User: Fold these one by one.
Assistant:
Number 1:
Amino acid sequence: MICISTRGVAPAVRFRQAVVAGLAPDGGLYVPATLERRPEHWWHALRGASFRDVAVAMAESLLGDEFAGTDLATLVADALNFPLPIVRLADGLQAMELFHGPTFAFKDIGARTLARLLALSDGGAAGSGGTRAEGLTILVATSGDTGSAVAQAFWGVAGTRVVVLYPEGQVSAVQEAQFTTLGGNVTAVAVSGTFDDCQRLAKQAFADETLRQRVRLTSANSISLGRLIPQMFYYAYAALQLPPGAGVAVSVPSGNFGNLVAGVMAWRLGAPIDRFVAATNVNDTVPRYLDTGVYESRPSIATVANAMDVGAPSNFERLQWLFGGDRTAMRGLITGNVHGDDEVRGAIAELHRRYGYVADPHTAIAYLGTQASRHPNTPAPQHLFLATAHPAKFRDVVEPAIGETVPLPGALAEAIARPRMVTRIGPALGQLANLL
Ligand SMILES: *Cc1c(COP(=O)(O)O)cnc(C)c1O
């Protein structure tokens, strides 16, 4: 798959290079140079197929020129080894649960796939029995959630090693348990300092030439195209599960807008989706753009759906590129909806009362987006909203809204019970370099 930069200056590269590079050298984001519509019979053959089959077919169609089919099939089976159930709440109303991976949020899908793509793309030691020294070291600074998703994603991936820097005593017990109890190729490093110290250390390490000659350092960049490709798979799968010809609208709880971009890319390939709802919290930069035509990023505002507290969505540039900067075309496909915290708590209560469904705050925003666009006379009778986090991750918001306790999933409870393995350092590059 040939990839180009959204800014159009950097030279075109192969997908493998785009994955290893992360950001394009002109500061833009990599996008597929073409997203040709797959023929009707191609889609028809996948109707009702399993998630695995749809994912492998799409992976081969997009990346088959760069990766062997068997590699892609193994990669999909390995990375996406958890269910993605579609839960029917009422006629024409369903939730797709994307949070059954190891960290109980949908980012597992992108991060786990990226980990394996990086290991393959790098031509590193993956699958060839090479030593770890030849492989990649993924260095990540975290205030909590990123560390667990990245550590879990790379855990056990041959040819990679993850070093997670976190501020000692400043992450939640559940978060800490998710990256300090893994062992193997994951090293958790407690820094006696703040999150800013951790981030500074990581930056210094990336900039240190002598260190980089000795250790092959990389970051698991959140804007990597390698995270968006697997997210296209579930849009296609879901649309192919719903009754043909009915018209499908998908509501996407959006922060950095990677998820929505993946949906639009699947639509461009011809996945049978008719429209999208970009549902946000009060960090409404993109809905405002859709309304007014003015793109104005703002400092982020804290909300109960904190994974969506993004004032300057990094994937907006990809969205613009997909529509050639044509807002009218974008509005023809995407509706923006903005929801405040009280409304979100109300939606959690409503989902529970009406359907017996327990939703986390991000999922509740997706549901609100669906409700706002479910007019009786609009042409999409099948509504799907994306459930992006397990409600147990946000018990402090969910439990008061539904008046019940939310049990911790077994895997989270087990992680909390396991012994922590932590290396401690001070906030100094020398100490980090020794460890690397
Ligand atoms: C990251 C995240 C989102 C937002 O996804 P984007 O791709 O950044 O728009 C929504 N819900 C949850 C739970 C998340 O972690």
Number 2:
Amino acid sequence: MSFSATRRHFFAWAQGALALGASGARPGRDPESTVDYYDKLGVTKIINAAGTYTVLTASIMPPSVQAAVAQAAQHPVRLLELQKAAGEYLAKRLQCEAALITAGAASGLTLATAACVTRGRADAIEKIPTDMTGLKNEVIVQKAHHNDYDHALLNCGVHFVEVETLAEYEKAFTGQIAMAHFFNAAGAGSISREDWVRVAHSHEVPCLNDAAADVPPISNLWNYTKMGFDLVVFSGGKGMRGPQNAGLLLGRKELIDAAVANAMPISATIGRGMKVAKEEIVGMVAAVDWFLSQTDEGMEAEFTARANRIAEHLKSIPGLQSRIVIPPVANRIPHLVLTYDQNRVKIAPKAVADALRHGSPCIELNPSTGRKHDHGVTGDEDAIVVGVWMLQPGEDIIVAKRLHEVLSKAT
Ligand SMILES: *Cc1c(COP(=O)(O)O)cnc(C)c1O
């Protein structure tokens, strides 16, 4: 090749690289990606005035995270190298010994359990959950801490041992206990986090904390590991607004290494089906960077401002009362709670939620709306609950207008 041909080749390559870089930095600019597959598939786009609910796809990644995902999609890498580098980077940023990006918090619970069951027993990794020979196969838990995610632990072939009081807990450590499990947002159960960790450690049993939905505050990302929990799980797609199928498993290096040994991309593991692709690994790291650039005060001020704008728009509705509720542990951000005079506005909160769901645009209100048995926000059957934190810019006013329309029509 002559020099000029080489140069032409180089410039063509460089232009191509620049074009790729530009489309990577601004997803959606690439003509190939202008097809809206939701429209093509006939899937309804919603306004999420509910919150980070899994069935509503939880959250929207901020632009910097979307760009990082699009960029990562353009290059193959070695998956183990990426997994290791991402873990080391996150451990530094999140002030823990080690970290693993999992396929969501539920996957983190499975991998944490597998780590505790198989640690020091590499031969057991491919045998669990059907052959538990010689393995510790019990997980201790407070009776009030059971939840729908128990299955993620049970997948590893373990059984639960239930306790209610500290005295029972202290006596429950047989030689078969592999792990002590704590549900961070349980809000019930008489044994504190500190006692839970102290007693387990006196028996050399590691402790797991499921804090999936428990940021903000941002500092929770290190509060529980610093408190002594050996492993802590967070969902990546909830408050951190990472990819929905990503999560964080944080904790002690020895146990994170044991979790990695049970995880994808290694094929003969319990975690093989919980694949985290390069796009999600990079997206999760970018989401942590984004989340750590926020402040608790800034987020709270923004969500409060949205709530106030909606309430202000509705003040002519007969008997309208608005308040802001911040749940204590999970989803600890301002929610707008609205009540009104149902003798004059003849529509129940649940019917308002239905009207918004079936209207245009389609709006999903918080599932606590009109429910006595709530989803952690309020137990008021007469209340409309607006989860403002997952609204996109400008959507607060759209929600306010639709609420005004539906409520004023019923007067
Ligand atoms: C949402 C949630 C999970 C699961 O999180 P994913 O990231 O969706 O897997 C687990 N535990 C609790 C308490 C949760 O709220």
